[in-house]
Amino acid sequence: MPACPYETFPALAGLPVLHAFTGRVPNLDVRTDRATVLRRLDAHHHEIRSVIGAGGRQFVTAEQIHGAGVAAVRSSQASPVAAVDALITDDPAVCLGIYVADCGPLWLVDPVRRAIACIHSGRKGTQLGIAAAAIEAMEKSYGCVRTDIVAQLGPCIRPPHYEVDFAAEILRQCRDAGLTAVHDCGRCTASETERYYSYRREKGQTGRMLALLALA
């Protein structure tokens, strides 16, 4: 059993992908800055990538600037990808990764064209329409048909712990963009700090969960 707990989602489990969402690592000191936290979490997150079968893939993350930039990546891509909050690929040699600690992790999977996206959508990114931008990028880059794309929203902060329900807005954007299979786990990071890290609840000194996605 890995030291770092993780979860998967039924809507993605039946698709040709590998995925996971890591949780809080018991007894790990995360009351420090982001860079130090990620170093402390790295071995745990690497273990989860191995557990789900993606340990040998090129691990690609995004700079995550709370914008709406999307990058199409392949296994030759240097990581992290500058100035983007969403990553898309059709390369089975890649494992996409997005870090969150209250913001919304969004997985997109087109099982027909075998293309995927992993998205960081917090309050600002949601306002800028990053989910719709990633869907459009999958359509343009890989010929994805929107009604084939499956969306899964993971744990994020929600009312009453946050004044804006950006989770509902992310789901609305996915549906407005033409997606018909839109799923939400419904969990709130700030409500379950024994299970997740919460940037707001822990006043900025906390860990990060990792959303992982790769083609099977």
Regions with pLDDT < 50 over 5+ consecutive residues? none
Alpha-beta classification: alpha/beta
* Strand line-up of the largest beta sheet: 4-5-8-7-9-10
How many discrete domains? 1
Q: How would a textbook summarize the main sheet?
A: 6 strands, mixed
Overall mean pLDDT stands at: 97
What string gives the helices and strands in order?
Answer: EHEHEEEEEEHHEHEE
Estimate the strand proportion. Answer: 25-35%
Q: What is the name of the CATH class? A: Alpha Beta
Classify the helix fraction into a percent range: 10-25%
Task: Please tell me about this protein's structure.
The protein has helices at 10-13, 34-51, 123-127, 130-142, 166-176; strands spanning 6-7, 17-22, 58-61, 70-72, 86-89, 94-100, 104-110, 115-121, 150-153, 181-184, 209-215. The protein has a single domain (6-215), classed as CNF1/YfiH-like putative cysteine hydrolases (4-Layer Sandwich). With 216 residues, the chain is α/β, with parallel strands linked by helices. Strands 4-5-8-7-9-10 form a 6-stranded mixed sheet. A 5-stranded mixed sheet has the order 1-2-11-6-3, with helices on one face. The longest helix has 18 residues, at 34-51. The model has no long low-confidence stretch (mean pLDDT 97). The protein has 5 helices and 11 strands.
